[in-house]
Amino acid sequence: MPSKLPNWLKIVLILAAFGLVRSPVENSLRRKMNTAGMLLPTPGHSAMAQMGQSALMGMLGGLRTLVATGYLLDSYRHFDNADWDANRKSLLLATYLEPTEESHWVDLVWHRGINAPAWLETRARLPEIEKRILYHEYTRDAIELGEAGLKNLPKSVEIRKQMAEVYREKIKDPCGTAKMYKEMLGLEGAPMYANRFYGYFLSECPGKEKEGYDHLVNLYWEGSHNHLPTLIKKILVLQEELDIPVPLWIREKDPDAQKQINRRIKKPKPLPGGIVIP
Amino acid sequence: MTTFTETRIKIPMFSPSRVWTIATGTMTQLVRMKTFYFLLVFAVLVAAIGNIDIKSASSVSQLETIKKVSFGTMDIFAWLYAIVATALLIPRDLEDRTLYTILSKPVRRIEYLIGKLLGVLVLIAASLALMFTLCLLMLAYKQSGFIADEIKMLQAAPNVTTAEIEEQVKLIQRQGVRPELAVAALASFLKSSVVAVMTILISTFASSSLFTIITSIFFFLIGHAHGMMTDFWLHKTEGNLIIRMLTKVFKLLIPDFQLFSFSEGIVIGAEVVPRVVWSMGFLTGGYLFVFLLISLMIFLYKEF
Amino acid sequence: MSEPAVEVKNLTKVFQTGSPGANVFKKGIAGSYVVAVDNLSFQVNSGEVYGLIGPNGSGKSTTMKVVLGLMSPTEGSAKVFGLDSGDIKARSEIGFLPENPYFYRHLSGEETLKFYGKLCGLKGKALNDRISELLEMVDLEGARKRRLAGYSKGMLQRIGLAQAIIQRPRLVILDEPTAGVDPVGSRQIRDLIIKLKEEGISVFLCSHLLEQVQEVCDHVGIIFKGRMRQEGTLEELVSIENRYSIVLEDASPALIKEIEKLVAKEKGASIAEQGNPKTTLERLFLKIAGRKESDA
Ligand SMILES: Nc1ncnc2c1ncn2[C@@H]1O[C@H](COP(=O)(O)OP(=O)(O)O)[C@@H](O)[C@H]1O
Ligand SMILES: [Mg+2]
Q1: Which of C23, C26, C27 to mutate: most A Cβ within 10 Å?
Q2: Domain ranges of chain A
């Protein structure tokens, strides 16, 4: 060999030089792929602390999705046993591994915010006070989990739909519900009814009734495609309640009075668990 | 008598046909060693995966689970195959002294190395293509079943318009067979190529197949997790200088395999950025080049 | 005069002991060394059969590997047809059969030859013709399509020989070609070596079994512990100038008595030995080995 460097040293030098050349390239590629969602983000320290070995396993090629699926299956088992805390833990671990997997978050919010409270209601033996505390705890947790999911998936419609359902059905909070529908507006894949539902629930939110009414009326005047019986009925009620000057009233008959067949009632949208949006 | 030298023989600097001879020899060897039997195992696994029945899951999320698990398994099989098949080649040639007969023919050592690598790569590509087809078939089968069920269910329900049925079907199709999935398979191929060339490098100084396999898997694990380990250890051992240096060294010397796991995101439904995929292809080329070069540096001075 | 086929000059090969892989990264710090070949010089003339003979571990294979360029010499040099060993051009003129070869077990005899033929740049009809010719020559026509996994030791050696000469090299290097082969098989191999010689191919072979090679070798070198101990033509090595032997067949004891009497009559002459003939070369070798062992 021409030079006096030993072979192994040359090899290490070449490897290191290649390492230096590729590391900026790789870093930029990693950033791009993270943005596009092609690469799944690595779990943070807190996740590692909780997962330990399986987190390391989960980082391996292909294994990550397998481990996550294992947790998912686990969560279904706990669901069947109504073990809500274990269910939450499994799903949370799945989200650590696949934080951008929307369905994990949706499932989390759904189990925590809908199924767990529903199960509580069937527990006749539980003291009322404890039920109430747990009910509050579950639903509040569901919303927090949903918000954590939205941090990872800011454009998620599905998580918001699920959160809206929790607000609407379990927390009975029209303001929260309205907020969720509002956030959906303009997002890709948002349901068409989101705009109307935003108005309906805003008009029930204390202090925001007028705002809600304005939104609905605007929808009404947008065109006849919005002239749905529910919308008309809501406006008819609101314009009286809010003392809207009569010249601004819409002139429609009460759709219920007509017994008109609802051609365009929102179809029953099956959510996980067969819950149906009215 | 002609004095021997230039007159009779002209040996090109690099002969693609010799490389190809070694590559095809490698392929025949691996095929006839029945290494392809792992595909049967894979087929059984995919069939099993297809039959996972999650009671309370919607068809969309069931389809997604099937897809994730089958593509994840495919990825694992691909890199495992890359390690095992490659590790069976050079150490075995050496053990069997076949290497002597090959290298005593007018074959350059670089041609031998490239031939072996090429043979393995072609086989990995072929097995990935097969596995990919299996996955797609399973997915298509499940998808059509789910869609048929969904349509039946929706048609039975009152007040459902065809547009709405279509919307539901589209939702299922989004988790079904899509062209992007081919890019996911490509990602697995790129990863296994880098794994294969790393294994070749290790096998140039290893003395047995087993040692090669174990070492390669060890480096694969480190290379897959060093980003995360850096995080983990640095956090645990707050600024321990030695560990910090060590992780830096690892990062510099060992391929970053985690970067090649972008099939995971694509399988879940991430958009594919063609520019990035091209870049990953070039990066793979860089790895192949540098690791082959180093393998050659070792192999060239290796004595048998 | 044509160039010698092989020219080895002052060849020394030192191994660092430890794992065979250890020398990848060149010489380490201290450690023990094995001198496998020690200042060895000899040459194989064009067209002759040269036999390197010595017990196991005496450095025969190492010498061959250096000649083939599979190893580099620690000191000295090895040239093939005037080219440095390891030169790819030299290798196209060499055919090599390693000791105890295993070829790809999953290939048939024909496929094996095709593989090596292609490596030498042969192709098409020329290659196919050559393969048929060689299979016939080494008497493996019948096993053409059979996989090597099912070959006997002798068949493996023969397909190995065919593989070695596929590109019509001018030099064939055979490492223990008859080791482990039954007498019939080893006879076949010796016939093949003679055939090669008749075709003008130089042969460099080594063996630890002397009687198996002595009849085919023109030149013999005796190597022991890496050093050349004695070298020359078969005649030179085995004939003893002041001796003469008559080998009788079916002689009666009476005739032998008669001869003994005759010998006794001549002044100074005596019968040095009698009995059933032995392989003289083997005896010579044993003597040399024994002497070196005692003075080592
Ligand atoms: N790669 C190697 N590393 C270390 N020692 C070796 C190696 N190859 C051969 N040797 C040693 O060199 C000596 C000569 O071996 P070899 O040439 O194979 O002998 P032969 O072929 O005459 O039986 C032996 O002592 C052997 O142990
Ligand atoms: Mg030997």
Answers
A1: C26
A2: 60-172
Q: Is the pLDDT of residue C165 over 50?
A: yes
Spatial CA neighbour of B77 closest among B96, B49, B56: B49
Q: Please state the atom number of ligand 1 nearest to the C-alpha of residue C62.
A: 17
Answer yes or no: is pLDDT of B126 > 50. Answer: yes
Asked if the ipTM is above 0.90, the reply is no
- How large is the average pLDDT for residues B166-185? 87
pLDDT tens-digit series, residues C231-283: 888 777 776 666 677 778 788 889 888 888 888 888 888 887 777 766 566 66
Distance CA A218, CA A230 (A): 15
Per-residue tokens: C121: 């740049």
* Domain C6-93+169-238 in CATH 3.30.40.10: no
Closest CA to B254 of B230, B272, B282: B230
| A6 interfaces chain C, CB cutoff of 8 Å | yes
Helix or strand (DSSP H, E) at A6? none
Q: Which chains touch C (3 or more CB pairs under 8 A)?
A: A, B
Name chain B contacts of C72, Cβ cutoff 8 Å: 301, 303
Return the CATH architecture of domain A60-172. Answer: Alpha Horseshoe (1.25)
Q: What DSSP string describes B172-200?
A: HHHTS--THHHHHHHHHHHHHHHHHHHHH
Q: Percentages helix, strand, coil for chain B, rounded to the nearest 5?
A: 80, 0, 20
Structure confidence by residue, pLDDT tens digits, B2-60? 444 444 556 777 889 999 999 999 999 899 888 888 889 998 988 888 887 766 667 78
Q: Is the Cβ of A3 closer than 8 Å to some Cβ of chain C?
A: no
pLDDT at residue C230, as a whole number: 86
Sorted by sequence, the CB contacts under 8 Å of residue A98 that are 6+ apart come out as A40, A64, A65, A68, A104, B264, B268
- State the average pLDDT over residues C142-161: 91
Lowest mean pLDDT among A134-148, B120-134, B182-196, C221-235: C221-235
**Is the separation of the CB atoms in C267 and C250 below 8 Å?**
no
Give the residue extent of every domain in chain B. 16-300
Q: Whose Cα sits closest to atom 11 in ligand 1?
A: C36
- Round to whole Å and give the CA distance between C262 and A44: 107
- Per domain, the residue ranges of chain C are 6-93+169-238
Ligand 1 close to Cβ of residue C176 (< 6 A) = no
